[in-house]
Design a protein that fits this description.
12 helices; about 45% helix; elongated
Length: about 300
């Protein structure tokens, strides 16, 4: 099956600045997402907001899209300055973000300056030069009510980061954000342009499935109707697809599809209701030999 135009171009040797190790594309590479790449590229070129937010359900591939977009920019000559990657699962203060940027762009001595002074110097630097900030797993900063994800940053820190993005509007530096939420409560439209991310569809979906089973040393049986029904329930969610292939549901009286239903605890399928994180964790926990999967041959 031919690769999509985006993944074909990303596969070529890139030009421009080196990418951080967090941008590694992993075992399966980057597949599909042509529409999302085009949306991000247009936003980078034409939207005045500094922040571009990729938002979607858990496992939908937000971080992978951010990585793929960096490779896309580099391969097309669209990446001019440096890339600074921040994983907000590991960040507990806005000052850490400011200090890391100040140290890299202004020098170590700048980190000892008062916050207001170094922040203003940093904003001026970022507005003049075309760098790219990546703020990954931003939901860890703000938390998700009713889940295990608790906010790691206080409100005053969120306000500082929002102010930074606001002051970068119209400048040369952009910030690529990922989150399971739209983050509208602290990042209004004037500060942040949003790109929703759903599941894989059509040939992009089959291309991804082929890449996963190829990595496992298997061959996909595309005509298996049980597999097709299960795949439809997964709504194109990449994490759920990897879990199914690596650890397919064990024996169940109603067959694999019924076992998958039980793993998802009655949650509905469809693009508006992708597999819940709890269902994905249970699928991951099903230990079995990938070679025995009824969906491959």
């Amino acid at each position: 099956m031919p690769a999509s135009p985006a993944s074909s171009r990303i596969a070529r040797e890139g030009r421009g600045p080196a990418l951080p190790q967090e941008a590694d594309l992993g075992d399966y590479g980057f597949i599909g997402r042509d529409w999302e790449l085009q949306q991000l590229e247009r936003a980078m070129q034409h939207q005045p907001q500094a922040a571009l937010l990729i938002h979607g359900q858990a496992g939908s591939g937000k971080t992978t899209l951010a990585r793929g977009f960096l490779h896309w920019l580099r391969s097309t000559g669209g990446l001019q300055g440096r890339v600074f990657w921040f994983n907000f699962q590991e960040i507990h203060s806005a000052e850490y973000v400011v200090n890391e940027l100040a140290r890299e762009l202004l020098g170590l001595s700048a980190t000892a300056q008062p916050m207001e002074r170094k922040l203003q110097a940093l904003i001026q630097k970022l507005r003049r030069e075309a760098h790219l900030l990546v703020w990954d797993y931003l939901e860890s900063a703000t938390g998700i009510p009713g889940t295990e994800v608790q906010p790691q940053l206080p409100q005053e820190d969120l306000e500082l980061l929002a102010g930074l993005l606001k002051d970068l509007r119209g400048g040369k530096t952009k910030a690529l954000l990922t989150s399971r939420k739209k983050e509208t409560n602290w990042l209004p439209l004037s500060i942040c342009f949003r790109v929703p991310l759903g599941g894989l569809e059509g040939e992009e979906l089959w291309e991804y499935c082929n890449a996963v089973v190829r990595y496992l040393g298997l061959t996909l049986d595309r005509d298996n109707m049980t597999y097709r029904r299960i795949l439809a329930k997964l709504c194109g969610n990449p994490l759920a697809i990897r879990a199914i292939f690596a650890a397919p549901p064990g024996p169940h009286p109603g067959g694999p599809a019924k076992g998958l239903d039980r793993a998802f605890e009655g949650q509905e399928g469809g693009r508006k209701h992708p597999p819940p994180p709890g269902g994905l964790r249970r699928l991951r926990g099903r230990a079995s030999n990938p070679g025995s999967s009824p969906f491959c041959r």
